[in-house]
Amino acid sequence: MDLSNINIRYITYALLGLGIIGGVGSFTAAGNSIMAPVLAVFYIVGALGAVITFKYGYFIFPFVTSRTRIVQIMQDGFEIPPSQDVILKTSGGAYYASAYLGVKIYESTSEKSQEENVVYSEYFERAISSVRYPVKFAMMVNVLDMSKERLKWETRLAEARLKLAREREKPDPDVLKIDRFEKEVGMSEQQIHRLISGFKPMGATTYMMTTATGLSKEAAAAAAKTQANELKATISNALNVEVAILQGEEMLRCFDWERFIPVSSEAMENSVL
Questions:
Q1: Nearby residues of 16 by Cβ (< 8 Å), 6 or more positions away
Q2: Which residues does residue 87 pair with via DSSP β-bridges, in sequence order?
Q3: 91 exposure class (CB count in 10 Å sphere: 0-12, 13-18, 19+)
Q4: Which of 154, 162, 192, 265 has the smallest count of CB within 10 Å of its CB?
């Protein structure tokens, strides 16, 4: 089954519209014993569906399409399989598949010493040298709002401290997780201190892309997924960063960024992976 130009945002708008129609209609038709309950159901389904789709659509949509075998056909011959974790293209009789990975970095190079940055660069070079295929690293940066940024880092600090405390309380705590949470706490504290001292904050969104080929769509997709899993393990271990294989709307967002990037800081902040 083919389904063109599916977009979670449009589905959210449609459900929100259904909720508004149901909400307004239920009040205007309060005296109608038949229509009022129906419109009330529209309101509940629309409002609840819009919230769920907006918050968890990136997970729900790939799950639904993988079960219903829905294939998304895009412009220029690109295709998204039901699993929603790769983008396919046929060219010259060969099949190509691209996978995207989101990268969350909790340490800033500007806050490291020169020796630490040298070591960090060496780790990065070693990680890349072990990869046998081309990898694309992309980063977008923007200037952030001071007050919003401080509130965000204070929230992150509280969450990181809570995660760290919970991990330490476990009978068999994960050393790698503790190290990562400690670094997240340290970076959050440093960022808050820099903001208080008048530092102008910069935001960054980083993702990776890998492409594989195969004799069939399935073979190309499987090869791209294998490369993505290898990249996830290699980069996360070498640089101690959080790497996630992207699906659904988040993957499509990176695909769109190959052609157009957010035009404002607000748009970029709303697009963070």
A1: 46, 47, 50
A2: 98
A3: exposed
A4: 162
